[in-house]
Amino acid sequence: KAGVTQTPRYLIKTRGQQVTLSCSPISGHRSVSWYQQTPGQGLQFLFEYFSETQRNKGNFPGRFSGRQFSNSRSEMNVSTLELGDSALYLCASSSGLADANTGELFFGEGSRLTVL
Amino acid sequence: AQSVTQLDSQVPVFEEAPVELRCNYSSSVSVYLFWYVQYPNQGLQLLLKYLSGSTLVKGINGFEAEFNKSQTSFHLRKPSVHISDTAEYFCAVSRRGGYQKVTFGTGTKLQVIP
User: Fold this and answer.
1) Do the Cβ atoms of A44 and A35 come closer than 8 Å?
2) How far apart are CA B16 and CA A115, in angstroms?
3) pLDDT of chain B along its 114 residues, tens only?
4) Are B101 and A102 within 8 A, CB to CB?
5) Least CB-CB distance to A104: which of B34, B104, B107?
6) Which of A42, A96, A101 sits opposite B104 (nearest CB)?
7) Which residues face A11 on adjacent strands?
8) I need a labelling partner for A61 at 20 to 30 A (CA). Which of A10, A48, B12, B84 fits?
9) Dist CA A7 CA A98 (whole Å)
10) Cβ(B73)–Cβ(B24) under 8 Å?
């Protein structure tokens, strides 16, 4: 069974640009969560999508957005990039079903974004 | 809302020595508890989880953790560490019931010294 796939793995952007990151969950998983990881801040929850609907949202500005497609693949977008957006962006999938929820997440290897 | 506190940001330990990584959580309702490990340039992978039942949970790579409800703690232990255990460890909590987001601690970097 294939794991969670994130693309691209590494990217460099300049301030003011925008970026789109992609995540393909484990087959059968309908929930995709996104986290931002920076040194000292740990993992900060961005948002979670389930069946194409945003179900949970963290405390990030509107420049951070996401969506989920009918095949459960998800994308997140960051517009007007700032230096502070440099981070490892992690995607995690789970079944997302209430009756199967144990909170366990399956992570991809992340997309490392550097903003210059 | 729930929160997780990992008091130690870095823990150096000699190879073959025991180690304990501390985790405390705060929640007004019952929770599930997790420890994840992150090796350099990789995503997180589940080390162990407490859902219910025995408060002593065994995970992969010889790690174990004990759920202490009265102290709201879920400390991770290993009796003898190996160089390959050098990684960052994250404690996480999720509320029981329905679907809830998972909240992570800030992580503890375990450095095993040869």
Assistant:
1) yes
2) 41
3) 789 999 999 999 999 999 999 999 998 888 899 999 999 888 999 999 998 888 899 999 999 999 999 999 999 999 999 999 999 999 999 887 666 678 899 999 999 999
4) no
5) B34
6) A42
7) A113
8) A10
9) 28
10) yes
